[in-house]
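Input (structure):
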C-alpha cells in the first residue's frame, strides 16, 4: 500500500474522528479516557503550527493520522513526541510505518535531537515491534502502568529514537 501523507486540515476531522473514537473506546492502546468527548479529542489531536497533525490518505480516503511536536517546553524542547492512529480496517498495510517515517523526517528537518514516546502500552506488541524496527528503543518501562481490558495490568514503555548521536552525529535513517 502506498499512502499519501499530508498536513491535516479542519475538513479532515470528520474522517479522523470515527476511527479515533473506536480506538479510544477499545481502551487497549491509549492513556486517554475511553469516552473522550469529541470536542476534547479534536482539541487534543488537531494541532496548530509549530506542532503538526498529518493524515495518511489512500485513494482519497483518510486511513490514519499522526500528531507531533515538542515533548516538553523550555530546556527540554529539543526532544519531539508523536501519537499515531490508524483506522483498524487498515492495520497491517503499512500506514503506521509511513506515518512513523513522516514523523522522523519532520523531527529531523525541525532540528530535534530525538523523538520520545511517553507511554507505549507493552501489550500493543505490533506497535512496539514497528517502533523498534524504525529505530526506537525501550529506555524504561513503568511496571503495571496501564490497565489493559483483557490482559490486566501491563507495563508502559518509554521509547526513544535518537536523531542526533551523543557527539552530534546523525542518528540514522528510518528503517
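Output (sequence):
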Amino acid at each position: 500500500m502506498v499512502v499519501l501523507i499530508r498536513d491535516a486540515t479542519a475538513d479532515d476531522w470528520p474522517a479522523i474522528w470515527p476511527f479515533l473514537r473506536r480506538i479510544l473506546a477499545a481502551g487497549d492502546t491509549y492513556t486517554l479516557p475511553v469516552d473522550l468527548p469529541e470536542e476534547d479529542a479534536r482539541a487534543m489531536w488537531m494541532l496548530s503550527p509549530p506542532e503538526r497533525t498529518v493524515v495518511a490518505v489512500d485513494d482519497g480516503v483518510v486511513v490514519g493520522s499522526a500528531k507531533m511536536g515538542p515533548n516538553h517546553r523550555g530546556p527540554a524542547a529539543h526532544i519531539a513526541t508523536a501519537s499515531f492512529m490508524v483506522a483498524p480496517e487498515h492495520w497491517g498495510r503499512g500506514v503506521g510505518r509511513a506515518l512513523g517515517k513522516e514523523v522522523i523526517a519532520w523531527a529531523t528537518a525541525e532540528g530535534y535531537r530525538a523523538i520520545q514516546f511517553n507511554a507505549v502500552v507493552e501489550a500493543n506488541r505490533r506497535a512496539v515491534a514497528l517502533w523498534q524496527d524504525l529505530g526506537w528503543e525501550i529506555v524504561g518501562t513503568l511496571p503495571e502502568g496501564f490497565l489493559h481490558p483483557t490482559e490486566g495490568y501491563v507495563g508502559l514503555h518509554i521509547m526513544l529514537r535518537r536523531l542526533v548521536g551523543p557527539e552530534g552525529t546523525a542518528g540514522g535513517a528510518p528503517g
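Notes: Residues 15 and 61 are 8 Å apart (CA to CA). The chain has four helices and seven strands.
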